[in-house]
Amino acid sequence: MRRTLKELTDVENPAWPEVVTWFDAATVSVQVIASDPVRSSAVLERLQVSLWSALGAQAFHTGGVFVDHKWIRLLGSGSPAIPLDIVTLTERLGFWASIDEPPTAVAFAVDAVGGIFAINGGAFGGDGLGMVFYFSPDGLTWENLHLGHSAMIRHLLSGSMDQFYESLRWKGWEAEAERLNGDRAILVYPPLWSVECRPLESAKRADVPLSEVIDMNLNVYAPAIASGDTQFTIKVRPLSPPP
Asked: What is the three-class DSSP state of 16?
């Protein structure tokens, strides 16, 4: 049975105050975009996640959050600054078959080169349920990061993502990411998954719509998986312990 907005919002010990402390203690730049009450209510009702959870707090209380020189965007209920919302991306990726069924994954963040963070609800198999998976633009695969949503958010805010992004960032990435609008991304050519892309500093880069980068990556990913192409198989991406 679907819960009402009142049931989702009227909870004891809501997560938002704690989430705010995570933002305040972040060692990377954080810009929280205010949410619109109408949009945030619609997104929360669609998600059916209460404000007791950090995911519900993120969806309801923010229109999105820029993190780490705007390289990472935590998605909320959408805003002029960050138009994409959690529900829209989750649906676009095919994780929602029906409004009456829970999603098989929830996409809650994207990065400047089209990487996607999603909580596994079965889309990536039973091993890793509830864990965050990352769609890597250089490996074109979903990688289990072995962290839940709350732990992943704290990790993204901790300043310990350099090793994780070692194969996706180049010297001077900070300035390029800072210039992006919330609906834009950096298209790297030759593509990040190609050998010809290395070293990254020599590749061409362009400011393009975020949707274009996501669609391009997924359009290559699906045929590659269907054909059993091993060109895109890479080692598991490392997560350094927070400092």
From this structure: helix
pLDDT at residue 135 tops 80: yes
DSSP conformational letter for 80: S
Question: What string of H, E and C letters represents the secondary structure of 17-56?
Answer: HHHHHHHHCCCCCEEEEECCHHHHHHHHHHHCCCCCCHHH
Q: In what order do the strands lie in the sheet with 132-135?
A: 30-34, 62-67, 72-74, 105-111, 116-120, 132-135, 142-144
pLDDT band at 225 (very low <50, low <70, confident <90, very high): very low
Q: Is 70 exposed, middle or buried (0-12, 13-18, 19+ CB in 10 A)?
A: buried
Give the HSE-up count for residue 130: Cα atoms under 13 Å, Cβ half-sphere: 4
Distances, alpha carbon 217 to alpha carbons 26, 29, 141, in Å: 30, 27, 10
Q: Which residues of 22-42 are buried (b: 16+ CB within 10 A; e: fewer)?
A: bbeebeeebebbebbeebbbb
Strand partners, 118: 107, 133
- The answer to whether 193 touches 140, Cβ cutoff 8 Å, is yes
**What pLDDT is recorded for position 115?**
95
pLDDT at residue 26 tops 70: yes
pLDDT in tens, 184-219: 999 999 989 888 888 999 999 999 999 999 988 888
The dihedral built from the CA positions of residue 200, 85, 34 and 13, taken in this order, carries a sign that is: negative
Would you call 65 helix, strand, or coil by DSSP?
Answer: strand
Write the DSSP string, 202-231: GSEEEEEEHHHHHHHHHHHHHHHHHHT-GG
C-beta neighbour count of 101 within 10 angstroms: 8
